[in-house]
């Protein structure tokens, strides 16, 4: 079990490590460097170096291609595991010495094994909840949503709420009738659910759609003002359409909390445990062995601590503290700091803040107004001065600060906050590993600042290709080209890039995000700013060792090196060498966490 860490926050060697890893990601930039991919192509089979203690292994993988993602080890054919750790890697002959009568031997039959995928930014309990409500991610249009809600209403009692999540108006095959600012109005939902509040979350999580019953319960009427950082979208006559942007969602959220409080403590715990189980099952089936959870309260962290003590957390969680006041954090941060030790499943050493919203909901904070909504440059969700105070608290208590920033103005303001705090404290920001979550649209002048300040770009490859077809409608062609997902420029200027899916905003599928990272092919078949693609190995690093570094856990995970956790994924195809268009068909054949096979694809 994790324990509070009392070591000084500055005790780290991240500065030199970041430089080394950044150079590796950039293709080593030196003729003298030999990348993992180059070793693989040359047939190099480096040994494991220092030999571990004698004895048999509990688990052996052999007869395959094992990409260690460790530049000193390269590619090998086999590895051995004892307990929850890798104890040796090498050739099949070398690893044969570790096989005993009780050793489980997995024949790779030429398949690729890699370090377990680390989801670099997702919402763990939200993923579980998304499986308990209407799934709107695949609807073709607003009419399909209305039909799904109608079916749910038929099975509900009057007064029951109907919840759903995942719609995105830019991905529908036709605009809804009577749309305002590109979004539907709630007349149809009002007709089919007059006695049931309906509340449907946007795919981004930065907007929601409510029917009249839900608005009434929340106390939203013609005179309700827009809250700071939010918008109640209205018809020309002033009545609400049902669309709530950013912080305006909290008005209905309060009513939802009151509705859910009808459950007993035991019922609430049962619902939460089911969310943990559902999220863990889906993550493991997708090859995720660790998950950076982008936002949990002190109360939720206490719940996770209980599960870890029971041994019932399905995957390893790196949790970011979220939605707590600076006063609360000043009091409680020392009590909650937990670093990973051994076979831990829970780490708490970071704080999540959010300076702006999402581009799809016109909430991203831009340097210039939106192309398609010229009366706004986005929304500021949390005041700059409040985030800056959090930065000071993070520094004081040895916590990492991870700030959501999507628009180019939001990224600049966040970098400015970090730089001011670093300068006042006289610290090297590279050793703190502070992050910007998403970092989607960055002014070219700000790109080099990531590497200079040591700020990690915690991006999601799949967002690029999912959003690519409609980004120009928000930003215009030129601004979209020079600011959107500039991975290559970030890498070339020394920044570390993490990868993920922002699940449940996107499906928790690392293969899809990996493919997006190396191809930038959108759903239309076109490449979005293809000059910024990652190499195959860079993309794999972004999902393994880079995310481990972004969580201060590179000594435990991220590469398949002796002494590290046996978190391993076996793939049906070699994503490092197959034709690019074959990558999406790759399946997760096996997921191993701490030396235990937790998922095996049927028929693999």
Keywords:
single chain; 604 residues; eight-stranded parallel sheet; six-stranded mixed sheet; Diaminopimelate Epimerase, Chain A, domain 1; 26 strands; 21 helices; alpha/beta; Urease, subunit C, domain 1
Describe the protein's architecture and organization.
The radius of gyration is 24 Å and the shape is globular. 33% of the residues lie in helices and 20% in strands. By secondary structure, the protein is of the alpha/beta class. It contains 21 helices and 26 strands. Helix 4 crosses helix 9 (265-285). Among the domains are: 34-115 and 558-604, Urease, subunit C, domain 1 (Roll), CATH 2.30.40; 129-260, Diaminopimelate Epimerase, Chain A, domain 1 (Roll), CATH 3.10.310. The chain has an eight-stranded parallel sheet with strand order 9-16-17-19-20-21-22-23. A six-stranded mixed sheet has the order 4-3-8-24-25-26. A six-stranded mixed sheet has the order 10-11-12-13-15-14, sandwiched between helices. The longest helix is centred in the middle third of the chain and has 21 residues, at 265-285.
């Amino acid at each position: 079990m994790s324990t509070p860490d009392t070591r000084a926050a500055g005790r780290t060697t991240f500065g030199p490590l970041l430089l080394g890893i950044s150079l590796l990601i950039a293709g080593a930039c030196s003729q003298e460097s030999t990348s993992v991919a180059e070793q693989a192509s040359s047939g190099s089979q480096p040994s494991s170096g220092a030999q571990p203690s004698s004895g048999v292994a509990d688990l052996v993988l052999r007869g395959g291609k094992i990409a260690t993602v460790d530049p000193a080890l390269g590619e090998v054919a086999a590895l051995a595991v004892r307990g929850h750790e890798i104890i040796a890697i090498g050739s099949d002959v070398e690893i044969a010495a570790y096989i005993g009568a009780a050793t489980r031997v997995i024949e790779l039959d030429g398949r690729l094994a890699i370090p377990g995928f680390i989801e670099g930014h997702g919402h763990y309990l939200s993923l579980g909840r998304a499986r308990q409500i209407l799934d709107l991610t695949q609807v073709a249009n607003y009419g399909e949503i209305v039909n799904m809600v109608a079916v749910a209403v038929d099975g509900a009692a009057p007064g029951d709420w109907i919840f759903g999540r995942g719609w995105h108006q830019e991905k529908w095959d036709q605009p809804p009738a009577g749309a305002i600012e590109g979004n539907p109005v709630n007349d149809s939902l009002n007709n089919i659910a007059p006695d049931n509040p309906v509340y449907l979350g946007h795919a981004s999580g930065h907007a929601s759609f409510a029917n009249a019953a839900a608005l009434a319960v929340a106390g939203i009427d013609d005179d309700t003002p827009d809250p700071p950082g939010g918008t109640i979208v209205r018809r020309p006559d002033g009545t609400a359409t049902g669309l709530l942007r950013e912080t305006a969602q909290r008005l209905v959220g309060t009513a939802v909390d009151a509705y859910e409080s009808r459950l007993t403590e035991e019922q609430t715990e049962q619902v939460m445990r089911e969310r943990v189980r559902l999220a863990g099952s889906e993550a493991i089936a997708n090859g995720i062995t660790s998950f950076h959870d982008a936002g949990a309260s002190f109360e939720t962290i206490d719940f996770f601590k209980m599960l870890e003590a029971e041994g019932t957390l399905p995957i390893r969680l790196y949790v970011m503290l979220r939605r707590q006041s600076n006063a609360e954090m000043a009091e409680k941060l020392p009590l909650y700091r937990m670093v990973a030790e051994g076979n831990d499943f829970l780490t708490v050493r970071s704080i999540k803040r959010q300076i702006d919203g999402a581009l799809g909901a016109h909430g991203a904070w831009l340097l210039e107004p939106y192309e398609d909504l010229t009366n706004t440059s986005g929304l500021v969700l949390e005041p700059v001065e409040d985030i800056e105070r959090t930065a000071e608290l993070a520094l004081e208590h040895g916590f990492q600060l991870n700030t959501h920033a999507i628009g180019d103005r939001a990224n600049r303001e966040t970098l400015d906050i970090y730089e001011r705090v670093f300068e006042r404290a006289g610290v090297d920001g590279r050793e703190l590993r502070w992050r910007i979550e998403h970092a989607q649209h960055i002014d070219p002048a700000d790109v080099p600042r990531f590497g200079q300040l040591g700020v990690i770009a915690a991006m999601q490859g799949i967002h690029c290709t999912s959003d690519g077809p409609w980004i120009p409608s928000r930003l215009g062609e030129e601004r979209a080209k020079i600011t959107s997902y500039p991975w290559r420029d970030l890498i070339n200027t020394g920044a570390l890039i993490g990868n993920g899916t922002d699940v449940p905003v996107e499906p928790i599928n690392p293969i899809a995000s990996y493919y997006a990272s190396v191809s930038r092919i959108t759903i239309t078949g076109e490449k979005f700013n293809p000059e910024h693609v990652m190499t195959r190995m860079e993309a794999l690093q972004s999902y393994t060792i880079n995310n481990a570094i972004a969580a201060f856990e590179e000594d435990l995970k991220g590469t398949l090196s002796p002494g590290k956790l046996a978190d391993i994924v076996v793939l049906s195809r070699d994503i490092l060498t197959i034709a690019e268009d074959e990558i999406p068909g790759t399946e997760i054949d096996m997921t191993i966490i701490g030396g235990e096979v937790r998922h095996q694809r049927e028929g693999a």
